[in-house]
Design goal:
By secondary structure, the chain is of the alpha/beta class. Helix content is 35%, strand content 29%. The chain has 2 domains: 212 residues, Rossmann fold (3-Layer(aba) Sandwich), CATH 3.40.50; 89 residues, Alpha-Beta Plaits, CATH 3.30.70.
Length: 306
């Protein structure tokens, strides 16, 4: 069943085209990774889907209805942002108390467990919390809400590696027991790659990729070996990236390798290196920008991909 249906969604800020006729369907009970570089349009898209921003044109349907000023729809959505704001003089308990009133599926048991696991100081005013502790407040609300449609717009950036792993583990465990649609925006692609079931990549306001994660993993490979042999093998294939070190060349190509391809690689003495999900998405984004004659964004780095 479709939870979100977007058709030709466009958002323009004066001279900036943030979303360019985006069409997208999000199915129920699926964890999505919403990925792309800074400024690609991820937060704008999520803001429009949660009725916190207005589209310039196009249509949005959430649970089959227009979400704007629709209490029936908005009560089923939780949107946790990196820059989430809370009253500065309030305590974390105040934020959780309000969330408990707003979300009908709220689990206080899960919230209490997460408070303990994140070691969140409940008697400290929100304005005095560290960035990581403030991130924990948002993560707890997002998970304990058990909203049918939950958006995480990188609210866990301030968390250390241990705390992020707690978030990932709890998300998977609770999702298995209480399925819902989760949209996870992250630049830590390799960290979340085992969580997400489907990848949606936005680049310059357009959908560059919308594919199941398991299918996507087999879409590229890096061929490594002597430059002449590598060039012979990749001739006629779509090349995403090339780099050389001395006499050794590595070329990342798009397309699944067949049994005949692998036999030829063995005969040529060439190696195949796996391409991580993060590497693939970075390469696809770079490749798409290079192929677009109107693109003027420069060459992104892995650290810039969000």
């Amino acid at each position: 069943m479709t939870t979100v249906e977007v058709s030709r969604l466009t958002k323009r800020y004066k001279d900036t085209l943030a979303l360019n006729e985006v069409s997208l369907s999000l199915e129920e009970n699926t964890i999505y990774g919403l990925l792309g570089r800074n400024g690609a349009g991820k937060t704008t898209l999520m803001s429009i889907l949660t009725a916190q921003n207005f589209a310039t044109s196009g249509t949005v349907r959430v649970f089959g209805e227009d979400p704007y000023e629709n209490a029936h729809v908005l009560g089923r959505i939780c949107f946790v942002r990196e820059s989430q704001k809370y009253p500065e003089d309030s305590l974390p308990s105040h934020a959780f108390r309000i969330a408990r009133l707003f979300f009908p599926n709220w689990s206080q048991e899960l919230a209490d467990r997460l408070i303990a696991e994140f070691q969140l100081p409940m008697k400290t005013r929100i304005k005095k919390l560290s960035r990581g502790q403030l991130s924990a407040v948002g993560v707890i609300i997002g998970l304990a809400s058990r909203a049918e449609l939950t958006f995480f717009d990188e609210p866990y950036l301030g968390l250390d590696a241990v705390a992020r792993q707690i978030f990932y583990d709890r998300l998977l465990k609770d999702y298995a027991e209480h399925p819902r649609t989760v949209i996870l925006s992250s630049h830590l692609i390799d960290e979340v790659s085992n969580l997400i079931e489907r990848v949606v990549v936005i680049d310059e306001g357009r959908i560059l990729l919308d594919e199941e994660t398991d299918v996507l993993r087999g879409r590229a490979a890096t061929i490594v070996g002597a430059a002449d042999a590598v060039d012979r093998f990749v001739a006629g294939r779509e090349v995403l990236h090339r780099e050389s070190l001395g006499r050794v060349t590595g070329v990342t190509v798009l397309g699944e390798l067949t049994a005949a391809d692998r036999a030829r690689l063995d005969a040529e003495g060439l190696d195949v290196a796996p391409v991580s999900l993060q590497q693939l998405i970075v390469r696809l984004t770079q490749h798409g920008a290079a192929a677009d004659p109107v693109a003027d964004t420069g060459t992104p780095t892995e650290g810039a991909l969000r």
